[in-house]
Amino acid sequence: MDTDRLDAALTAALEEVEPDHSGETSDYLDDVAGRQRDGLAAAVCTVDGHQASAGEAEHAFALQSVSKALTYAVVLEEVGLDAVLEHVGVEPSGEAFNHLSLHDDGRPYNPLINAGAIMAHALVPGKDAQTRAGLLLDRYSAMAGARLEVSEGVRAAESARADRNLGLAHLLADPGVLPIEAREAVDGYLTQCSILVTAPQLAVMGATLAAGGVNPLTGERVLQEWVAEQSLSVMLTCGMYDATGQWVAEVGVPAKSGVSGALLGAVPGAVGIATWSPRLDERGNSMRGIGIFERLSERWDLHVLRHR
Ligand code: GLN
Fold it and tell me: How large is the average pLDDT for residues 207-231?
């Protein structure tokens, strides 16, 4: 599809969902406060590097839980599949993202809910918090093809209400399976949640996953092919919290959502898609983001399980 047609399709989908102001925002966070409550942006990047965007494409928002999928990819790449699987499973939990439970084998269910994401963060190689955050920023930036940074405001807001995440980290630390100290794992996880992106940058990250690990803009191989495949598999089965089954049935695109209203999707061999709209449904997924994905999936025939 050429860029003009991509632009027109994206703009149409955005205009259709724009009037919907239902859902609540997570208002303790700096980046969704005030007028940003009704912000809206969408962007796509194809695996051959065509880009389009609509809405507030310049606005930078925190990745929040979208970072869980990205850190999972980074640790797979850095420490390998076996070491990662030893610490965190790949089963949907059917529970809310911050549920205080582990699988009965003692591992967090999957890396896309908080317990698993804290564990995945703890697997990032590095002698201290700064080294681990630096590695993640480097790898995320390579996926985005742009230099990304952490929002100190979001990070401070997150640290101020980290009790539940600390509870999860202590659950993991108790049997001695958390490789680093609980507080450090939570701080590092919240730092990765606070990395800022624009919708176009996030779409390029999706395109890197969709292209088997090669950033279509820079040509850099950021992830091995199996890493992209493993990450997309877990996004498909676990990426939308306890609404993932319905998401797969209706949209059929590997995806990951975040409490900032961010939503990242990647269709293997085709396209990365990103939306940002802070009003969330009761599962914590972006209302209008879902609306845009539903439209694009249908109009561009993106459902990965469709018979072709
Ligand atoms: N920072 C949030 C938390 O862990 C991320 C949650 C999310 O995006 N759903 O509490």
Answer: 98
CATH of 3-64+197-299 given 3.40.50.300, 3.20.20.70, 3.90.76.10, 3.40.710.10? 3.40.710.10
Phi/psi region, residue 106 (left: phi>0; alpha: psi -120 to 50; beta: rest), is: left
List the domain boundaries for the chain.
Answer: 3-64+197-299, 66-193
Residue 103: the pLDDT is: 78
- ipTM of the shown complex: 0.93
* Residue-averaged pLDDT of the chain: 94
* Predicted confidence (pLDDT) at residue 35 exceeds the cutoff of 60: no
Residue-wise pLDDT for 100-150, tens only, equals 777 778 899 999 999 999 999 999 999 999 999 999 999 999 999 999 999
Cα-to-centroid distance, 236 and ligand 1 (Å) = 19
Q: Return all residues near 106 (Cβ < 8 A) that are at least 6 apart.
A: 175, 177
CB atoms within 10 A of CB 245: 12
Q: What pLDDT score does 193 carry?
A: 97
Q: Which CATH number fits domain 66-193: 2.40.160.20, 3.40.710.10, 3.40.50.1390, 3.40.47.10?
A: 3.40.710.10
Q: Which residues contact 26 (CB under 8 A, 6 or more apart)?
A: 32, 259, 260, 278, 280, 284
For residues 295 and 15, the answer to whether their CB atoms sit within 8 Å is: no
Q: For 172-213, write each residue's pLDDT tens digit.
A: 998 889 999 999 999 999 999 999 999 999 999 999 999 999
- Best residue among 114, 119, 263, 282 to mutate for probing ligand 1's pocket (most ligand atoms within 8 Å of CB) is 114
Residue 37 CA to chain centroid, in angstroms? 20
Residues having CB within 6 Å of any atom of ligand 1? 64-65, 97-98, 114, 158, 165, 193, 258-259, 284
Pocket test for ligand 1, best of 70, 158, 264, 283 (most atoms within 8 A of CB): 158
